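Postdoc handover notes: sequence design on the structure in folder B. Input tokens:
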């Protein structure tokens, strides 16, 4: 999905990038789903209590972008599903290349 230039979910930041993320807690597995509207949709197995989903988000983003967990911080939205995540040590082009690799095909439902 191509978004207008002003609505990109990935923006350059000092020493890295800023990601607009929409978290879906209590999913069946941790995974980056792809671009959903103006944010990157990320599913997490952790529940949204006592920072568990935030810790899972940091670990998931770090693994997805192959950076240390200490390079990933939540800049805003600590208690919301929509968050701004700062990642140090990667470029916008690297993140967009990873997004292009994500399978964004809709899930197929079993016939009823």
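Designed sequence:
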């Amino acid at each position: 999905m191509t978004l207008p230039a002003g609505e990109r979910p990935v923006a350059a930041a000092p020493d890295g990038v800023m990601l607009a993320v929409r978290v879906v807690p209590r999913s069946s597995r941790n995974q980056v789903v792809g671009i959903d509207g103006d944010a990157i949709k990320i599913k997490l197995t952790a529940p949204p209590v006592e920072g568990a989903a935030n810790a899972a988000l940091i670990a998931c983003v770090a693994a997805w972008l192959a950076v240390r967990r200490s390079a990933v911080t939540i800049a805003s939205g600590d208690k919301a599903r929509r968050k701004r995540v700062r990642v140090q040590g990667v470029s916008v082009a690297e993140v967009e290349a990873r997004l292009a690799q994500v399978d964004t095909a809709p899930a197929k439902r079993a016939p009823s």
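Context for whoever picks this up: Residues 64 and 74 are 16 Å apart (CA to CA). Don't rerun without checking with the PI first.
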